[in-house]
Structure formats: structure tokens, C-alpha cells
Amino acid sequence: MDSKSGRRPGSPQTREAILEAAVEAFTEGGYAGTTIRAVARTAGVDPALVMHFFGNKDGLFDAAIRASGLPLRELGEVMEGDIEGVGERLVRRYLSLWESPEHGPKLRAVVSSAASSPAAAAMLKEFITNEVLQPLAGQLGVDQAETRGIIAGSHLIGIAFTRYVLNIGPVASLEKEQLVACVAPAVQRYLTGDLPLA
Amino acid sequence: MDSKSGRRPGSPQTREAILEAAVEAFTEGGYAGTTIRAVARTAGVDPALVMHFFGNKDGLFDAAIRASGLPLRELGEVMEGDIEGVGERLVRRYLSLWESPEHGPKLRAVVSSAASSPAAAAMLKEFITNEVLQPLAGQLGVDQAETRGIIAGSHLIGIAFTRYVLNIGPVASLEKEQLVACVAPAVQRYLTGDLPLA
């Protein structure tokens, strides 16, 4: 225990401080660039205490995603309103999230981590499925809602990857509303249109 | 120089052997997990010779993508045939590439590397733009062909990321032809349909 920090091992404040350090570390360095040791140092605790709370790096990453304050569950709010506009509302809300100074860097870290680490990918997969897709699918009231949700989600992840991670010219430089207008009809079709699903 | 290998420094065969080792290393470990030292060891040469040929790790990655034999340029062949079917042909060809035992792991390594390394992302961006999008756009004969190509490409990257990297249930378990039927209309619209582009 780092005596300078004055934190008691095992207290909720200590767990909180570790999580805060973890969110910061994963956001800056991604999954591969983050170590338990560095997180412990930032939080002013012994690495063993990080292990005590979170088991291992995967457990810490999982907890950090949940603690990161990413308002992904709020994406479900786009279900409010007419169903013909759900695609447009979802694309707009999603791009706004990526473009927010608070959440954009965290989203980027999550996607980058998932691409380079199978453990991080498994976490992201579980998180997207349980926290985003299943609630959304439940509200859609259409057949094959989960499959529809994830095809739409695939499209949105690809847009973010090219626009915000790879930063490829034409997609990166489009105005947000122009991109919304391009992409919304495809997302709308995936969510509520005629699809050749069994 | 490793005397065991019997390779002459500076010979084309030596460069070839380094590249082969690099493609293998990047495919297995991604950008972050690959070192010049390990590539040199596999190729049986001194690390300084790797630097001599390729400058640094970024240069080696760039050369490895080009040497990997990924038949991305062949995606342009989908332009042959009626223009109403180009979306379907492109999606089918692209998914087949990801599902081939030879090319799938390499594609996965490229996408993972780009997600975790800005240098690798810059390479992938330049490669996609110059080698895939511009030739494709030139053949489409539509306005804003490059922007169309990259929006379609974004969608395809997202599908591959969810299906082959994250391996998320509903998208990962769809039959390839079912996924082609779902996604082709959206890609077709991006390539040749009415889009609100300036």
C-alpha cells in the first residue's frame, strides 16, 4: 500500500480510485498499452489490491467499460417517437456520441482494444449484446430484432472506424448531417424493413 | 549477419526472406505484437539489415501489406457486369476473401493493427484510398465516386469487424449468402443510388 495516498485498502473509495485510473489508462493506451502496475501506481495503491478487486486485466477492462460513463444505454432513447424515424435518430445520436469530447476518446479506446485483444473483444461483444442490442431489439417489436440490431450496429461501427479511427478523407470530412442523411435509410431498413432473414 | 542462413546481405533473396517473415509476424501478432528483432531472427538476418531495407517498423508494415498477396485490387473485378448487380458482387467477393483460409487471417491482422496503431492506420488508409477506392471509383462513372466508395467500404469493414473479429452471434452465424442478400442493397445504393452528396 502506498502510504502517501492515505487510502484504506478495501474501501469503496479505493476501488473507485482504481477504476478512475483504469478508465484513464485504457482511454490513453488502449488494452495493449495498459498494465495493472501502471494503474495501481496512478491510483496510489499496491498492484495486489487491483488484483483483489478485479481479478486480472480482463476484469479491470470490463469494469472500466462499465464505469466509463459511456451513455450507450441512452441510445435506446431513439426508440421514442415514430418508428419511421428511428434509423435517422439512431445514426445522429451515435455520431454525436463519437464527436463529444467527453465520450469520443473512450469509444475509440474500446474499439481499438477490441480489435487488438481477444479478451477485450469478448467483453465488448457481451456488453454490446446485453446492454445495447437486446434492450433495443426488445423495443423494436419486429421479427429477428436482435439480428437486425447487430447488422445495423455493424454498419455504425464501420462508419466510426473509417471516420474517427482511420480518418479516411471523404467520410471523415463529410458534415455530420450529410452523413446522417446518407446512412439513415440503410440503418432504417436494417431495423424495420424487408430483410431476407429466415 | 547470421552466418547459418548463408544469405548475402542486400540481395533480393534476403529482402524477400525478411518480407516473408514480416507478413507471418504481423499476421500472428498484429502491429503491436511484432518487433524488428523477431522478424530479423525468423529471417536469419541482423536487425540492422531490416532497418537498411525498410527504415523502421512502419516501413516494414507498409511493405508487408503490399507483399501479403491480399487480392484487394481484384475487388475491382466486380465492376465487370451489369451495374445494378455491382453491390451484390462486391459484398459476395469481399466476404469470400475474409472467409478464405489464406487471406482471412491477414485481413484480420491488418484491421486489428490499424485499430491499435496510428502508424498502421495511416498505412491502411493510404492503401485503401490509392489501391482500392480510387480505381473502383474511376470505373463507377458516377458523381462523388470516391465518397460513395468509402461509405460502402465503411459498411463492409464494420460487417467484417463484427462477424470475423468480434464474432457477435447473429451476424457471425448468418449464412454468407443470407448476409449478402441483407447487405447488398445498402452497398448498391451507396455506389450508384441517390445520395444527398453536394
Please summarize what this structure is.
Chain A is an all-alpha fold.
Main features:
homodimer; 198 residues; mainly alpha; Arc Repressor Mutant, subunit A; Tetracycline Repressor, domain 2; 2 domains; 10 helices; 70% helix
Task: Describe the protein.
- Chains A, B: Keywords: DNA-binding.
- Two copies of one chain form a homodimer.
- Chain A is mainly alpha-helical and 198 residues long.
- Chain A has two domains: 12-67, Arc Repressor Mutant, subunit A, CATH 1.10.10; 72-192, Orthogonal Bundle (Tetracycline Repressor, domain 2).
- Helix content of chain A is 70%, strand content 0%.
- Chain A has ten helices and no strands.
- Chain A has helices at 12-29, 36-43, 47-54, 57-67, 86-99, 104-116, 118-140, 145-165, 169-173, 176-192.
- The termini of chain A are far apart.
- Chains A and B meet through helix 6, helix 7, helix 8, helix 9 and helix 10 of A and helix 6, helix 7, helix 8, helix 9 and helix 10 of B.
